Amino acid sequence: MTLAIRSAMLLLLLCSVCRLHAASPEHPNVLFIAVDDLRPQLACYGKPEMHSPNIDRLAASGVLFERAYCMVPTCGASRAALMTSQRPNRTQFVNHLTWAEREVPDALPLHTHFKQNGYETISLGKIFHHPTDHADGWSEPAWRSPKRGYQDRASERQAVQQNKQQWPGKSNHRGPAFEAFDGPEENYPDADCASRAIEYLEKYAEHPEQPFFLAVGFLKPHLPFNAPQKYWDLYDHDSIDLPPNYFPPQGAPQGAVHNSGELRAYAGIQPRGPVERETARNLIHGYYACVSFADAQIGRVVDSLARLKLADHTIVVLWGDHGWQLGEHGMWNKHSCFETSMQAPLLISAPGDTLVQPQTRVQSMAEFIDVYPTLCDLAAIPHPPGLEGTSLLPVMRDPSLPGKQFAVGRFGAGDTIRSDKWRYSEYTSPRGDSTGVMLYDQVADAEENSNVAAVQMDEVHQLSQQLRQRMGKSPKRSDPPQ
């Protein structure tokens, strides 16, 4: 072998080593996908009627948490709790207008911690409720699409005027609650967000030595249920009907069931009373269409990881910020302590961790405050002090471990705890006096139709004690029910 050939081979070897090192950064990348109002209405969660192939494929590539729960079923508070790994209480993380930087100013948010550990951090779409919340933790200003959700502007304006004339007493007048439009998909904010995310991934593929934390927040299936017609066409409208429990649950405390105020502002929705059956069916159809539309955008982004050869070194997390009622107990939206509000999807794909196997399903409890420490462990960066969640990595590697036995959350005057069999909720006055409790057997009564607190006092007492041990610090409360 001549010296020239040996030199050329050595150069090729060095180049290969350099490329291998560049494509394998010390810390894996993170693609952090948030989906607004996404309940576990997905085929991978046992809903075969749903067309969600991309999320289902993501679930098959990693870990699906069958019982993952938000901390507060409203967007701003839920996102603030997840991003800071701090529990809510009666005065902290209360509603959709929550600012994490104002309510827990000493907490180090997830994206800031990753930025301090060498990551480029990017926010696209809706991550925090307020795009300027903890702005200094992003490498660039948070971006949101300027495009509008309604595509038929004339119909939107006409519906708003009709709404004002028909129900002038409404506090707010929005456009239709749903819209199917046969127009370009790229005109929708979520499609625009996916395109923007792909542009960033293409940039990162050219500079693989720079680890990234790319947060991509999709708006759908949040109201209004606006999606291109082709996603409506995926579902047979005649097969869609109201849930079997389209009525208030028996014996629920005052304040447990709400009037679906978020929905009532939209045109065509009466201020009070049950939503008319055909309108309700259209709402459910629209929600399904929006889930499939969001799924398609998620597929575009995740497919780009593979196309750009980033998938093997990128952790992918997908979470819905809370659940959503689709007419269960006569309610729409979230904003309750029922399972339908508290449970949301959580999927994590960790290709760099050889101990985390694909097609893993975890049945133990997961709380959204656990996402922060889990990502720290997967990315091999230390936990900052003060996190209130615990890492899910052990159960990701071995789902037979017991994991968490309880998931705790709250909304309004209610605090709630989920165990393997039960969901128990306490309602209190501002002074902390008990105003009612509810207990549902999740095995015998998964739809939570019958409050059995009065006949299961031993369970009430035990779960009340567990709730008080685990709930966020709050003003002084009364003694637990006896």
TrEMBL record:
Name the source's superkingdom: Bacteria
E.C. number(s) listed in UniProt: 3.1.6.1
Q: Where is the composition biased (Polar residues)?
A: 158-169
InterPro entries hit by this protein: Alkaline_phosphatase_core_sf (IPR017850), IDS (IPR035874), Sulfatase_N (IPR000917)
Q: What is the required cofactor set for this protein?
A: Ca(2+)
Q: Name one GO molecular function term.
A: iduronate-2-sulfatase activity
Q: Which GO terms describe its cellular component?
A: cytoplasm
Q: Which residues form the Sulfatase N-terminal domain?
A: 28-379
Ranges for region Disordered: 138-187, 462-482
Kindly indicate whether the keyword rRNA-binding belongs to this entry. Answer: no
Keyword hit for Methyltransferase? no
What top-level class of enzyme does the UniProt entry assign? Answer: hydrolase
* Signal peptide residue numbers: 1-22
Which keywords does the record carry?
Calcium, Hydrolase, Metal-binding, Signal
Question: What family does this chain come from, according to its entry?
Answer: Belongs to the sulfatase family.
- Protein name as annotated: Arylsulfatase
What's the source species for this entry?
A: Aureliella helgolandensis
